[in-house]
Design goal:
Elements (H helix, E strand, L loop, with lengths): L2 E8 L2 E8 L6 E6 L4 E8 L6 E8 L3 E7 L7 E2 L17 E7 L6 E6 L2 E5 L7 E2 L1 H4 L15 E7 L7 E6 L2 E5 L7 E2 L22 E5 L8 E5 L3 E4 L7 E2 L8 E7 L7 E6 L14 E4 L7 E3 L16 E3 L7 E4 L5 E4 L7 E4 L5 E9 L1
Antiparallel strand pairs: 1-2, 1-28, 2-3, 4-5, 5-6, 6-7, 8-9, 9-10, 10-11, 12-13, 13-14, 14-15, 16-17, 17-18, 18-19, 20-21, 21-22, 22-23, 24-25, 25-26, 26-27
């Protein structure tokens, strides 16, 4: 019988949910890592039993990467928290914004604030800094988005271990094709609308919010920018705007369907200080043709919704009938098991939801 595991990271701890393949009835445990900010989480299905990882931050002890091999019953952390800058770097990790499984069995990638990318080859116990990216000549000019300067996207190539795509707010998209020996910006065509006219397409400095792709089509990337939704069909060498038909081009998450590489989901928000959906109606927008056309989905979602959905608070599972999950800053998580046609809540009244990750376990 297949089990579904759902990790919900919040501003005040982590909740772990379980259901069967139907995903109708759920049971949750938590708070785990009570009163710690959990900005990233990972269900690592390469292990048996599966390993849960969480990027947690304590106001007293700082950030750490925690791991559990018993679905949250107990938690351990790596050496000195598992992720620390070398002394010569003159920096300290403030938050762990991203945890992603790599191509090799025990490789885990992390993205942090301040902007750095890290690699672990021991399942998340210890992490090594990607030095060439930290030393990149652009780094002193990277700014900070509203949430801070962070590598929030790390996309290891699904078949080429030497290729990794990352994104930072604000700095844009960078990519290595030589296993981290060098990194190049990949922002051609992405507009930085906050810059003066005539300077809005710089080599770097864009406020990218999230990048996603499907493993069966790694050359195609989808990107939610500070203003605009984009697609690249050449592995990030160039980007094309695909926001036509959306009610707003601002937003944070972008998610690709688990089995359909042309199906992509976004959650549009008003820009500026009004970071809630247009007209206060919670809607997931779906495209089945790689962003050429869009349609809204709101059945089961609230029409009076005055909060946001942050960049890692939307995800998909890998069931044959793939589920899609949306977590909001009002502490509610919804699931759809019919390609975002209808929604139902699975948990409510949690603290601000910062991230959700789900997986189907045999």
């Amino acid at each position: 019988m297949t089990t579904t595991v759902l990790m919900v990271g919040t501003r005040k701890g982590l909740w772990v949910g379980r259901s069967d393949e139907a995903r109708e009835e759920w049971s949750f445990t938590g708070p785990h890592l009570d009163m710690e900010e959990v900005y990233s989480c990972l269900v690592d299905t390469r292990h048996d039993p599966p390993r849960l990882l969480a990027g947690a931050s304590s106001s007293w002890l700082g950030p750490s990467v925690r791991r559990s091999d018993d679905l949250g019953a107990t938690w351990a952390e790596g050496e000195v928290g598992g992720i620390r800058f070398p002394e010569y770097a003159g920096a300290s990790v403030e938050r762990v914004w991203q945890l992603v499984a790599g191509l090799e069995p025990d490789t885990v990638w992390a993205g942090t604030e301040p902007g750095a990318v890290w690699r672990s080859d021991d399942g998340g116990r210890t992490f090594a800094l990607e030095q060439a990216l930290w030393d990149h000549p652009h780094r002193p000019q990277w700014g900070e988005g509203y949430g801070g300067q962070a590598f929030h996207t790390v996309l290891p190539h699904p078949s080429d271990p030497a290729s990794i795509t990352v994104a930072i707010s604000t700095g844009g998209v960078y990519q290595t094709r030589d296993a981290g020996a060098s990194w190049e910006p990949r922002n051609v065509g992405i507009r930085a609308e906050f810059l003066p006219e005539g300077q809005q397409f710089p080599e770097f400095g864009q406020c990218v919010h999230k990048v996603a792709r499907h493993p069966s089509r790694p050359e195609r990337l989808f990107l939610q920018n500070h203003g605009g939704v984009y697609r690249s069909d050449d592995h990030g060498a160039s980007w094309r705007l695909i926001a036509a038909g959306l009610p707003a081009d601002f937003g944070f998450p972008v998610v690709v369907h688990a089995h359909e590489p042309d199906t992509v989901f976004v959650f549009p928000l008003n820009g500026g200080d009004r970071r809630y959906p247009p007209r206060g109606q919670a809607r997931v927008w779906r495209s089945r043709d790689a962003g050429e056309t869009w349609e809204p989905s709101g059945s089961g979602l609230p029409d009076d919704f005055w909060v946001g959905v942050v960049r890692d608070a939307m995800c998909a599972d890998t069931h044959p009938a793939a589920g899609l999950y949306v977590g909001a800053r009002n502490g509610t998580v919804w699931v759809s098991t019919d390609d975002a046609s209808s929604w139902r809540p699975v948990v409510a009244n949690l603290p601000d939801v910062m991230c959700v990750r789900a997986a189907a376990l045999a």
